[in-house]
Here is the input.
Amino acid sequence: MQTSTPTPAYHFTARDLTWSAPSDTNADTTYTVTASAFDAELRCSCPARKTCKHVRRALAGELGKPRCKVTQAPRRSVPETFGFVTPREVCA
Here is the structure.
């Protein structure tokens, strides 16, 4: 007997994690440290070319909790000849 798992009604997408890192030299400047949702690599918006102190502070937990945007959308079905598939299956 084959059992089927129901398709969830909603599709959730998590975006990159971001931290705000204040500049040590300029009080009016804040840099953004981002952890990519695809490869989890940390990147900073500061002009440093190597791993900067802002990334090291994010890794050490000194910048507090990261911000993360999660979106929720209804799952849409695309009619096919032999039933319905989800957009993820069509784009795969």
User: Anything to note?
Assistant: The longest helix spans residues 53-60. Residues 78-92 have pLDDT under 50 and may be disordered. Residues 10-91 form one domain.
